[in-house]
Amino acid sequence: ELDEEPTEDAEAEVEEGQDAEGSDGESEAEHDETVAQDEVLDKYAVVYDQSLDKVRFPADIVAEIKRTWQLFCSNAGSPEAAGELIFNAWWAAAPSLHSYFKTPRTVLYLRIVMGIQPIVAALSHPTELKTQIDIISFRHLDRPVTSQAVEIVRDAMLDMWEAELASEFTPKARAGWFALLNYWGGAYVFYQREYAARIRIIHRSWREANKAAAQPEDEAELPAVAAAASEQPKTEEDEEAAEENQVAEAQKQEEAGGKASTEVAKTAHDSQMKVPNSFREMFLFNAAVMG
C-alpha cells in the first residue's frame, strides 16, 4: 500500500462516515458504489459497458495520466494542435467513423481537447469524474458506439501518444490511459444501449406536441368550415318534415318510459368519443388529460 496524504475525496468520505454513524450502514453502501483503487486496472482491462460506476484511480496512476496529458498539450503548442493530433489518429484508425465527424475541423479539434480536459482534471474525485462522463456520454447518444469502435479509438490514441511522447509515455501512464479510456468508452456503450431509444421517444413526442401547437388557426378551422360549406339550405318542406319527426320521436320516448332517451344519449356520447389509434393521437390525448 502507498503511504500518501489523504485526498479531498478521502477526507470527505471520513466526514460522511462520521455524520452517518448509527444510520443503518449508509456509509458502507456509499463505499460499495465506488470501485476501489486496487480493482480499477483489473476491472477496466476491457471495455466495461454493464454499468457506470464511481471509480477511484490509484494516486500514482492519476499523477501519470495528468503529467502525460499536460506534456502532450505543451508539446503540441496549442489546444487546437493537440486536438488535431488526436483527431488524425482517430481518422486513420477508424474509416468507418468518418461520416460521424460533421463539425468543422477547427471547431472539432478544440472540442476534443475541451472534452478530455475536465475528465483528466476530475480523476482524483470519483463523483465529479462520473458526472463528467455522464455529460459527455449524453452528448454522443446520436452515435452508435460499440465496444469494438472504442477499442480501435483507444489503441489509436495510445499509439499516437507513444509516438509523440516517446520514453515519457511510461508503462504506468499507458496502463492508466488504457483503463481510463475503457471506462470512458464503456460509458458511451452503456448509455447508448440503455438511454438512446428513450431519448428518441422523448424527442419524437416533443416534436409531435410542438407540431400540434404550431398548427395555424386557419388550418385548424378548415374541417369546421368545410362541414358548414357542405350543408345545403333547408327548404320549408324540410323544416316541416323535421318537426313531424321530432313529434313522433317524443311520442315513442314517452311510450317506452324514457328508455329511448337513454339510448339516444348513450349513442350520442359514444359517437363523440374518439379512441386514439396512433402514437401521435395517444400522445396528444395523454398530454390533454395529464396537462
From TrEMBL:
<feature type="compositionally biased region" description="Acidic residues">
    <location>
        <begin position="1"/>
        <end position="31"/>
    </location>
</feature>
<dbReference type="InterPro" id="IPR009050">
    <property type="entry name" value="Globin-like_sf"/>
</dbReference>
<dbReference type="GO" id="GO:0019825">
    <property type="term" value="F:oxygen binding"/>
</dbReference>
<dbReference type="InterPro" id="IPR012292">
    <property type="entry name" value="Globin/Proto"/>
</dbReference>
<protein>
    <submittedName>
        <fullName>RUB1 protein</fullName>
    </submittedName>
</protein>
<dbReference type="InterPro" id="IPR044399">
    <property type="entry name" value="Mb-like_M"/>
</dbReference>
<dbReference type="GO" id="GO:0020037">
    <property type="term" value="F:heme binding"/>
</dbReference>
<feature type="region of interest" description="Disordered">
    <location>
        <begin position="1"/>
        <end position="35"/>
    </location>
</feature>
<feature type="region of interest" description="Disordered">
    <location>
        <begin position="213"/>
        <end position="273"/>
    </location>
</feature>
<feature type="compositionally biased region" description="Low complexity">
    <location>
        <begin position="222"/>
        <end position="232"/>
    </location>
</feature>
